[in-house]
Amino acid sequence: MKKTFTIIILMLVSFSVFSQVEIEKGEKPPLKDRIYFGGGFSATFGDITSVYVSPIVGYMITRGLSGGVGITYQYYKNNWYEPAYESHSYGYRLFLRQNLNFIPRLPLFVYGEHESLNFEAVQYNHNTGEYYLSRGWYPRLMLGAGIFAPFGRRGGFYFAVLYDVMYSGSTTSAYNSPWVYRIGFSF
């Protein structure tokens, strides 16, 4: 029950921000109008405490194609263990996003992201038969698509479904599944 409650709270508290600025044909906006900021934040507190912060900066390359970089930091503490398990994860990501304009009034996009996180992963020693924690860099490559519902020139809501094509199990990933679902807004 506590796990379900924690997941529900995490989903309600978390948000992500992306921009859907689109350059009109023939328009040559200045650099400051091509750059956008966003990111994500989530937090849960209780027996399991998790704080996640992931700001991004993006750049509109062409009329619908944008790319950018971001950093990620997560603090995690689980009081169900004695002593409590505590960890810090950090990393970076690079992304590309292409708006698809082939269906009028249906703002779809495709998305690709390379993320590399540094965290403690569970490893198994075949010689001793023991498990241990080992800190290292673990990459993931997510590909997917989404839909964006704009309001105004720069804002809107989006939903995206991504799949980690490098996922090889929860011992080499910071996540329990290769599927990533994102819901957010921009302004």
How is the topology of this model organized?
Blueprint: H1 2-13, E1 15-17, H2 31-34, E2 35-44, E3 48-60, E4 65-78, E5 85-100, E6 108-125, E7 130-151, E8 155-164, E9 179-186
Antiparallel strand pairs: 1-2, 2-3, 3-4, 4-5, 5-6, 6-7, 7-8, 8-9
Describe the protein in words.
This protein has 2 helices and 9 strands, in the order αβαββββββββ. The chain is mainly β. The protein has one domain (2-186). It is elongated. The two termini are 35 Å apart.
Element string (H = helix, E = strand): HEHEEEEEEEE
User: In percent, how helical is the residue content?
Assistant: under 10%
Which structural category fits the helices and strands? Answer: mainly beta
Shape: elongated
Strand order of the largest sheet: 1-2-3-4-5-6-7-8-9
How far apart the termini lie comes to 35 Å
How many structural domains in the coordinates? 1
Oligomeric state of the chains present here: single chain
Radius of gyration: 19 Å
Task: Figure out the total of helices.
Answer: 2
> How would you characterize the largest beta sheet?
9 strands, antiparallel
Number of strands: 9
Strand content: over 45%
| Low-confidence residue ranges | 1-21
- Which whole number gives the mean pLDDT? 80
Q: What tags apply to this protein structure?
A:
187 residues; mainly beta; nine-stranded antiparallel β-sheet; 2 helices; 9 strands; disordered N terminus
